[in-house]
Each structure stands twice: as C-alpha cells, then as structure tokens.
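Hey, I'm writing a tutorial for new members on how sequence and structure tokens pair up, and I'd like a real worked example in the thread rather than a made-up one. If someone can provide the structure for the chain below, I'll link this post from the tutorial.
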Amino acid sequence: MWNNIAVRLFWLMLGAVLGALLGVFLGEPVKEYRRERMAQQKVPQQTLEEAARYRAQFTDIDLNKASEDYQSLIKKAAALRTQAYWGLSKTYADWATIRYWRGLSRGDYPDRAVGLALKASADAPTSVETGIALAYAYESEEAEQPDKPASRAKVRELLASHTSDHDVRYLDGLVKGQNPMLINWSLEIYPMCAS
C-alpha cells in the first residue's frame, strides 16, 4: 500500500515539475505569439493614430516606430494608403530636420519624404494634407538654405486657404527661420493666433 502511494506521489511530483518547466519554456513564447497576433489584428485606423502619436514624440525610437506602423499600413490597408504616405513622408521629413538640428547628416530622409509626398499627391492632389506633406518634405530638403524657395511657395499656397491649421502655421514659422521649439510653444499657448 505505501509503495503504491509513493509511486503515485513520485508521478504527481514529476508531472508538476515537468508542467512547471513546460510553462516556463513554452509560456513566454505562447504569450509573445498571442501579443503578435493581437497586434496584427489591430484596426488599421488605430495603427494610423498610434503612428501619429509616435511621430509627435520627435525621438529616434518613436520615429522608427511610426515609420514601421506607416509602412505596415501601406502594405496592408489600401483604404488608408494615402494617409500612410502623408504620415511616413512627414516622419522622414521630421527625421531629416531633427538630424540637421543635431548637426548630423540628413541622409536620404529628405528624398524619401519628397518621394512619398509625391506618391500621396498622385492619389490626392488637391488634399490639404498632401500639401502639408509636400511642405514638410521641401522644408527638410532645404534645411540648409536660408531662403527655402520651394517650402516658402508651398506654405504660402497653404496659408491662402488654411490659416488655422496647426501644421501650416508651424511650417510658416519654420520657413521664416523661427525657432521650432518657440513655434510649438506659441501654438500651444495661443492656438488661434497666426504665427
């Protein structure tokens, strides 16, 4: 009788140990797989909004996350492709601008920004967002030029009909040579005043 109980206890303990080991070794990969599946099932509109929030942080890590989100939308969400072009174009323009402010090479970010803005322009040529994406792209391309002719022309065109748009007012300040941090601060303090 005692022998039978000992054998049962042995198998019960062995089962518990093996179960714990399987839980440790398989538990995390299964959790990670579930997280990835949930991320894949995320609504494209949520991804677009998340990418915009990442872009607004102005850090390399967040710009990279925004870039990945926009690129995934371009591949899988045809209905939001133009919006993803706008966002990715502005992300690359921001990256170029930030690198310029840091004294680093802007790399090919301005070229990428212009290329994506032009793709958006082919899809939605009259959209104000296309104009804004083009203005950001031109500004990043002309960062070293004090007169910024293409940026200035695009911003003037946008100001003619969209004076209250935050992005347009921000770009207006940039092409006038104002400090970007002060532009953002003044737009937050005085949101309805033109810069």
